[in-house]
Amino acid sequence: MPTIYIDNKPFDVKTGKNLLEACLSLGIDLPYFCWHPAMGSVGACRQCAIKVFKDEEDTRGRLVMSCMEGVKDGMRISVNDETAKAFRSQVIEWLMTNHPHDCPVCDEGGCCHLQDMTVMSGHNYRHYHFKKRTYPNQYLGPLINHEMNRCIQCYRCVRFYHDYAGGKDLNVFAAHNHVYFGREKDGVLESPFSGNLAEVCPTGVFTDKTLKEHYTRKWDLTNAPSVCQHCSLGCNTIAGERYGQLRNIVNRYNHEVNGYFLCDKGRFGYEFVNSENRITQPLIRNQPIEATEHDTVLQYMRALVTGHNLIGIGSPRASLESNYALLELVGKENFYQGVPDDLVYVEQKIVDILQSGTVHTPSLKEIEQADAVLVLGEDIWNTAPIMALAVRQSVMKTAATHTTEQLPIPTWHDAAIKELVQEDKGFLANITMLPSPLDEISSSSMKAAPDDMARLGFAIAHILNPSLPEVRNAGEELLSYAATISKALQAAKHPVIITGTSCWNNALIRAAFDIAAALDMNEKKAGLAFVMQDCNSMGLAMTRASSFDRAVAAIQRTTNVTAIILENDLYRSIPAAKADTFFNKCKHIVVLDTLHNRTTEKAHVLIPAATFAEADGTFVNNEARAQRSSQVFMPANSEIRESFKWLADIKSLVTTASNGHGKHMDDLLHALEARLPQFAGVSRVAPPHDFRIHGARIPRESHRYSGRTAMLANLTVSEPKPLQDDDSSLSYTMEGYRGLPPSPLIPFFWAPGWNSGQSVTKYQEEAGGALKGGDPGIRLFEQTTAPPVFSKDIPDAFTPRAGKWMLLPQYHIFGSGELSVYTKGIASLSAEPYVSLSRRDAEQSQLKNGDTVAVKTDGKTYTLPLSINESLPDGIILVPAGLTGMEALSWGAWVNLSTVIV
Amino acid sequence: MISHLRTMWLVFRHLFQKKVTVQYPEEKVPLYPRWRGRIVLTKDPDGGERCVGCYLCAAACPVDCIALQATENEEGRRYPEFFRINFSRCIFCGYCEEACPTYAIQLIPDFEMAEYNRQDLVYEKEDLLIDSQGKYPGYNFYNVAGLDAGVKEKGKGEDEETPVDIKSLLP
Fold first, then answer.
1. pLDDT at A661 (0 to 100)
2. How far is Cα A840 from Cα A870, in angstroms, rounded to an integer?
């Protein structure tokens, strides 16, 4: 470990870092703009200047940019040198010559890196007496606001959007002192990662447009650590509330999971919490007055749960606690997943693989560090966007590593590496049904039907391990793909295979497992990552409860049934006919949910459940990492409560003595561990509810939280008692422990002098490294030495049938989410319903783009406009899944088509 | 004894001096323009609300008695959707006025705001907004801010160049 002397004090620093990283890791405040821990250094802003001395005798030294200089043993530098300080304050003064007098009306104000750095460098008076440069702004879509006057030309936006995330439509234009960061012309930013611009930009050029609708400064938000609800990756987020409304979502750094970035669906898809469609009161239907309150509804429930056969339908988007509370209430044998049989079958296979521990499941960080990636049959761009971003980094980093192996260039030297790497790329094979933006960076991208993709997987596995069965009747093309991919995987040290459930195909999962296991046997450290559908799909699948189809079968055999449906719109995942069959057999239907939907319409008793922002809950992500999402605010309406609290109340109607059991979620998680041992460790996911630091709680509010004595003064001038949170160690006040809280309980990032999100460095062990005290989340499965069980059953090649098409879902990042479409901006970006056919199929049926096509399935006919997809394999019909107004279909079924003459 | 006589003499002499006591409320107290009393929200020379809802007054308030919510009109001009001061908590320290970057919030020489009912000391925007520029006539924040919020176009403000032609590569 090299020792460097900073202002004559020795410090041990890590090899391979630059001086800026070293100083920040040591906790020294050194201003910077263009450097970003995830993107490296380019030395563009000249803000991080320090003095470097030749040796002990050298008193003059020379100014260098600390981000462009690596650490060397025995190096002597000075951060507080007068010349260096003067240089830094001079630079910021130059940067500020054109910065507008906008802070009061700028959304960045209060969490602005430029404000922080200006104060840190000591610049406070503009000596430049000439005019300020101005720019026109652009319309960048419904999610991001553009105010170009505020730009300080650090190039971070382009480096993120273009270089890091691969977006094509944002770049730098014009020349010299008026370079312009924007699009070629006004228009919606195409990249689904555009929201990160708001956090990457050190000033207010790019800001969150959804926050603008109900603007609140960072210091006024009540924040809590939370987990994204919109896909299975479980990105860590910070959700902020003010006046009883969820106001924004920002990234919560987790080294192992999302790192510094979120996708737009996760960042902007929070508006459902504030929706007018929320269920706000318990309803007992078919009464003169349906709306009721807690005690009455419980009184009514007593008759429904006693003397009736109970059936509980769990939910992949409800927390582990709520699902388990339902399981406890109805009994393990009466608890069903609210997920169709075909999907449960695929998910069960995934859980089996994870539980066997034969192969390692990589975190997103490990995917970033992989040196060869095979995506087998999962459209990760749409179903797990941040994973797609991680895959892109793996491809870029592998190419960079190739270069740095030949030339001694440090890994943080971004511009130099880019110059050397040019168009060189690491290995990525993107095997999907449809083209994806990832294809541009992939070396190999076969487009095929799910069964054919699985066959390719088995062919690769066979090459890697010849003892595995051969794929019969494999075509020339398939074998050549298999050969290339297997060769690249063989050459890699840490190959990663990614697959998922979006093709609803079990063979794909088996094939991916066979490849990973075969690679492991060849002494590779292979990883196998799965993508699931919802934020707690993994948690629900791990309960190993039966599918909804089994519930339908079970209800046929019994009478007098009370069905309790937990936070699940069955009509989104189950074909309507089947769901109707189920509901028609139920004597009583009790639904707990957050938003009114088709399922809640069926409810005889409707109970308002809390959303993620109003509830504590544990969610299990795609790598079986359990993570805690904490309550951000208590709803003013006390009828809105966590589902598990409602269910516990209902349970106390059945059991005579409740012994205070299930009072805290800690108790629920302990009970869950005892009942279902596969969840062992889940209770350690966050400190217990009575955890205190020096007797103090961790405040959800910043020390500068304003309006405490005026916020509610319009209702009554006497301030109410601060809200009491009995479920966690976070408090609803400004008072409490102000140091570093344990990582699962970080409500927001702030450090003295660092008001912006860049303060995260103060919470990390080293700049860009793990959070102090370890990253949050507990992985429930670890790798064991169990021998792999390979599959013998290889599907036959997919052959189109005459007059029949295989119906498969197409997921869209904007539109397929049940909750995210409540954000107006996301709804406006979502696709309109359509059906897709291959060009040949369409021509054979004499159809052209825009023709209305009728799809017959599940005894129903759906008429939708046709959109011909050039790359779609023949014999398949694609329908977008989950769009508003679209019903769930029997994915994987063979359906008939007919043209509708309008 | 001498001391008593001296005191009596002094008291007697005060009978002929000018009275310090002001016959309030019949007689009003002279107050200086910068006297820190009732808080008002002022208006721009063009009659628009000066407050841009930046939350700095609320943040500066040591008793946290200011609460507001910023919103925007179609032209992008920020204004408070509501602005509430709980005068039963206010200590008239004037920090809000100091913090205000737009001269919107001002403390004026008026202290006659006692109420029988504490709830009546909660002032909303309607109660605070006055039709005047207060102590700083002629100032309009949007003329010096870079942003175009319907007050002036980009490049038309004080000390602003005309917007850059981004398609030009000329020096």
1. 52
2. 9
Q: What is the mean pLDDT of residues A406-417?
A: 88
pLDDT at A78 over 60: yes
Strand pairing partners for A283?
A291, A606
Q: Looking at residue A855, what is its pLDDT? A: 85
Any CB–CB contact under 8 A between A102 and chain B? yes
Q: Residue A133 is nearest to which of B53, B89, B164, comparing CB atoms?
A: B164
From the list B54, B119, B149, the residue facing A109 with the nearest CB is: B54
* pLDDT confidence of residue A181: 94
Per-residue model confidence (pLDDT) at position A658: 54
Q: Is B153 within a domain?
A: no
Distance from CA of B32 to the nearest CA of A (A): 29
Expressed as residue numbers, the domain containing B79 is: 30-136
Q: How far is A277 from chain B (nearest CA, A)?
A: 23
- Cβ distance of A130 and B68 shorter than 8 Å: no
B119 with A717: Cβ contact below 8 A: yes
* B23 to chain A, closest Cα gap in Å: 33
Compute the radius of gyration of chain A from its Cα atoms: 28
Is the predicted pLDDT of residue A759 greater than 70, yes or no?
yes
CATH label of the domain that carries residue B46 = 3.30.70.3270
R_g over Cα of chain B: 24
Q: What angle in degrees, to the nearest 10, is found between the helix axes of A576-585 and A548-557?
A: 40
**Average pLDDT in chain A:** 91
Interface contact A135, partner B, CB < 8 A: yes
The shortest C-alpha distance from B126 to chain A (Å) reads: 13
Chain B touched by A220 (CB under 8 Å): yes
Task: Give CA–CA dist A130/A446, Å, rounded.
Answer: 59
Q: Nearest to residue A498, comparing CAs of A624, A622, A393, A349? A: A622
Please give the tally of structural domains in chain B.
1
Share of chain A above pLDDT 90, in %: 68
pTM above 0.90, yes or no: yes
**Helix orientation angle between A643-654 and A294-305, rounded to the nearest 10 degrees:** 50
Is the residue at B142 inside a domain?
no
Does residue A880 come out as left (phi exceeding 0), alpha (psi in the -120 to 50 range) or beta?
beta
Instruction: Give the containing element (helix H, strand E) for A324.
Output: helix A320-330
B125 burial via Cβ count (<10 Å: 0-12, 13-18, 19+): middle
Give chain A's domains with CATH numbers. 3-96 (3.10.20.740), 215-276+698-775 (no CATH), 286-359+535-621+640-686+783-792 (3.40.50.740), 361-525 (3.40.228.10), 805-899 (2.40.40.20)
Q: Where are the alpha helices (DSSP H) in A61-204?
A: 82-96, 113-121, 156-158, 196-200
Return d(Cα A459, Cα A454) in angstroms, integer: 9
Name the strands in the sheet holding A283-284, side by side, starting at the edge strand that comes first in the sequence.
A283-284, A605-608, A588-593, A561-566, A309-314, A335-337
Query: How many angstroms separate the CA atoms of B29 and A415, rounded?
Result: 70
Residue A40: count other Cβ atoms within 10 Å of its Cβ. Answer: 25
> Is A568 in contact with A318 (CB distance < 8 Å)?
yes
Tell me what percent of the residues of chain A surpass a pLDDT of 70.
99
- Rounded to whole angstroms, how far apart are CA atoms A741 and A698? 7
Asked if residue B125 belongs to a domain, the reply is yes
Q: How many CB atoms are located within 10 Å of the residue A605 CB?
A: 20
- Decide: helix, strand or coil at residue A878: strand
Q: Does B120 reside within a domain?
A: yes
More confident residue, A862 or A36: A36
Average pLDDT over residues B147-151: 88
Q: Any idea of the CA torsion for A124, A128, A130, A132, to the nearest 10 degrees? A: -50
pLDDT at A900: 64
Q: How confident is the model at residue A656 (pLDDT cuts 50, 70, 90)?
A: low
